[in-house]
Fold:
Amino acid sequence: MRPKYLVAVHAFFIDKNDKVLLSKRQNTSYMDGWYSVPAGHVEAMEPVDLAMKREIVEEIGLKVELKEPQHIMQRLSPNDERIDYFYVIRQWQGEISNQEPEKCSELAWFNLSKLPTNTIPYIRKALEEVSAKRPFCIFFEPQ
Structure:
């Protein structure tokens, strides 16, 4: 049987001090109270780079130029299978602002080496992989 993969994009905004922008989830039905990053699902027939640009505008109000994804993760769980594309953005213009306060209770900067304990595990893993310059990994979600 062939799997049907869900595809998502994630933005790692990393500043010159190696701090990453994290968003605290609320009212989403998935890991509320945990930190993630600006992200979202790719829509039908939507290129991943355009999906990432759309999600960044929708969630933090910035228009950015993107390079290729820095990391790709195959994420497997008992409920679904996903392919996640992670983009690293180190330069941007404009002010980051929370455009979805109903889904995000806060935006905050954290040192890459001192992430909050309530960082979503696959996000933590992807940040580790990006820091190690590894382009691909497989992540098994806990059951």
User: Anything to note?
Assistant: The chain is about 15% helix and 35% strand. The first strand starts at residue 5 and ends at 13. The chain has a mean pLDDT of 96.
